[in-house]
Structures are given as structure tokens and as C-alpha cells.
Amino acid sequence: MNALVVPFVDNGFMLNALVGGLIVAIACGIVGTLVVLRGLAFIGDALAHGVLPGIAVALLLGYPGILGAAVGSAVMIGGIGYITRRSSLSNDTAIGLFFVGMLALGVIIVSRSTSFSGDLVRVLFGELLGISRRDILVQLIATIIIAATAVVCYRPFLLLCFSSEQADISGFSSRLFHGIMLAMIALTVIVSFQTVGTMLVFGMLLAPAATSALFARRVSTMMATASAIGAVSVYAGLLISYHFDLAAGAAITLVATIVFFASFVAVRLARRLSENRQAAALGGSPAESA
Amino acid sequence: MSTQVALGSPVLAAAKLSIGYGRRSVVADIGFELAAGSTLALVGVNGSGKSTLLKTIAGLLPELSGSIRVFGKEPGSFPARVAYLNQINSNQMILPLRAIDIVRMARFSSIGLFGRATDDDKRIVRESMERMEVIGLASEPLSALSGGQRQRVFIAQALAHDARLLLLDEPETNLDAEGKEKYRAAVRAFTEQGGVVVIATHDIKEASRCGWAMLLAKKVVAFGPGCSVLTPEALLSTFGITARMEEGKVVVVEREHGHECGE
User: Is A41 an interface residue toward B (CB < 8 Å)?
Assistant: First the structure.
């Protein structure tokens, strides 16, 4: 029992990491649900990686990385929208172009500056164990904004996930609410990169939401379940990282992904069992039915 | 054309209307008026412009030139008065929604972001589902329904807008005989109360049940009362098929000349 609680009681950095991680899990559960239902995984992935040059330039110039991440994601969302509207290229192609372009730019900036090697690892994989009270506060505010937006926009988001035309016909501009959704993804990526890192924030966005999609029958419960799965992954990942001396962000993301695959297999097995039982009941042998 | 000029202004009015995507015009010079209680069938093959016209009326596509008025204003001005049934999109199947959640969405245009569903809203949702006989499926997840059941739920959703104008794109897709029966009865009841229905279809039989018909083939081939429009000559230029009238119904035949429209 001690092994499950003591690390967080004895070490201030572990408690900070747990609190910060849980807040990230809530934001990612809400936004990840929208990403899965509206099919925005690719743009989510691109944003998570494409903010790298923004962060790198900001750190080089002595500004907070979070500011650079905000600029980077604004450039990407604006650019993807512009290319999609002004050419016959698909959204996917535009996203892919910005994705690789921004990532390459980020790597070049980072590799050209000598002072960066340690920071790059920090940006990519987060620094959950070094998270400060201030970081937690920023994250809390962002998560409150995200949750409030999800509540306010719940109906248009539902319509948008169902059909963008049905959103428009009902008087909710699909362009406006799609933009709000992208801004929520960007905000999640921007504030989460300090904890789980840009490489792994996407895993936290996708894995818990995908897991809850296997069970959920309502969108609101899907958001809540995804947040809870994310929270459990944060706790378990931190413990594993503490006891086995592993990178915290990677451990959390790995747990979240394993939870998905385990749930997937469990759901498949359960379905097959119930099918077998139904088949047995329908064509049951006389001995059994007697 | 005298039947068009009913009491009050027309529900739908188009003049010299040109529709299309971006700068590419699909159909030009469309003109018609529809009074309360009318039904209009837009008939044509794929790509003939019928869905484009439907989307323009719905306000989903801007008109390229000319004018279109819905309840006397720009399309899209009255979300609570217009319902639109679009063709099914495969992404909808992953949504964790029950049949009743789909139908309830139709009330969002009236209750807005924060409003609470009133007893009236609940009654409209229930009645729409009863009309399409899907009330028994209310708690079923969308992904567990068959294609025909889904289409019934989507039609119930369109009905639950409690609109004055119904825009339906291929509404009979996937419906079985009973489903078609329910759907037709619902449309009849809707127009008897003064509602206007515009249906995009490539089914001539479905079109022949409408009071008005417009044949589209990248242009307006013909427009007028259903039986005078669905003539063998017009159908030949729209579909490249030959047809004849039999007891007031259009019958598609091959290589044969038809009779005049009428009894």
C-alpha cells in the first residue's frame, strides 16, 4: 500500500507532477473526445508536433516556450485553413505539408544552436517532474476554459460531429464552431507540452478518448470516462516511473495506450462470448434446455 | 400557374437564379415560386444539380447570381423554420448517440445554446419518432441500427425540426415498403398543414406524387405541375429514357411513345 501513496507524500515534485498530470488528463479527455468524434486526429497530431519551431525560437529569444507554442499553432491552423480554401488540395494534404515543414524547421533551429540539446528532450518529452506551481496554475486556467467552452458549445459540437450541414441548417455556423474546436486542441497542446511534452501530448489526447469510445453511449459520458482513464494513466504512469526510474511522460502515455489495447481485446472477447452464448441459446441442445 | 399565387407571399421564390460551387455554375436561370402546402420534386440524374439547388435553398451554398427568397428573406435566415435531410455520411456511425439523441438534435435550432427542452420539445420529438415508428428504438445506439432504421431516424429528425419547409435529399434511400408508407404519410400530413416540401430524387414514381416537378439536367428542362412536366419528351432529355402515362401514372418503358398526361 505504501508503494502506492508514499512517493507522492514524501516528494513535493511527485505531488506537483500528479496534480499537473491530472489537470492535463481532464483537458485531454474533453478535447480528445471531440478529436475522435469529429475525425481530427491528424490535425491534432500535426499541431502537437508543429509547435516545435515556435517553442524553439521563443526559448532562443528568452521568451516563455508557451508563447512560442501559441504562435506556432496559430500559424498552422491559419495556414492549413488558407491552403484548403484556396486550392483543390484536401485538408489532409495541407495538414501534412505544415506538419513536416514545421517539424523540419524546428529540428533545424534546435540543431543549429549549441545550447539546446537538453532543452529539446524537455520539449519533446516534457518535464513533468520539474513542473512548478505556476505551471500548474496556467494549466488549471486553461482546463477551466476548455471545460467551460465544451459546456457552452455542447449542442453545436454535437451537431458538428453528426454533420456540419446540420449544424449550419440549425443556425450554428460550422466554420465558427470548427474553429473553436481547433482552438481548444491548440490550447490543450500548448499548455500540455510542459508536462507530457509535444511528442506525448497527442497520446494523451487520443488514447483515453479512443478507449472510452469503445464503451460510451453518450458524448458527455465519453468525455468523463476519457478524463477518468487519463487520470488513472497519469497516476499509474507516475508510480511506474518512480519505482522503475523511467521517463514520467513516456510512462504515462504508454500506460494510456496499453489501457486502450487491453480494453479493445476485452471488448472483442466479451462480444464473442455473448455471441456464442446467444448462438448456444438459439440452437441449444435438448439436454441443456430440458 | 394560378395555383402558385395562394394567399400571402410565396414560401419559396427564385428568379434568374444561378447555382453552383465556387465560380463553377451547375444550373442557370432557375425561376419558380411555391406557396404554402406545395410539394416540389427536383428530378435528375447524379450531378444534374438537384442537390446543389437543395443546398442553395437551405442556405448551405451561396447563390451565384439571381435571387432566391425563403420566407421572403435570404436562405438561412430562419433556422427554426427549415429542416434539411442530407445524404448519410459514414462518419456518423462512430458517434456514441442513441436514436432519440439524434432526433433531439432537431430541437437545438429552437432552444439555442442554453435553453432547456420544454414539454413541447419533448412532445415534438416523441411524435416525430412515432410517425416514423422508431419510438421503440429510442434507446438503441445509432451504430446498432440497420440502414433502413437509420434513415427512418433521420427522417424523424427532419420532422422534429417542426419546420415549415422540408428539404429532403433522396429521402426514400434504404427504406423498406413500410418505411416508405410512413414517410409518405408524414409528408402528406405536413403539407396538409401548410408545410412546403422540396424533394431531390431520381425516382420518377416518387416525383409523380408531388404537385410540382422540375426536371434538371445541368439546366431546367421543364418545370410545372407534376403530370404536365413528367412527359415522355422531358424524361427522354433528362434521363435518356422513354416513358408513357398509364392511368395517370408515369410508366417507364423502352422504345415506345407515350400518351398525353391526364386520366
Answer: no
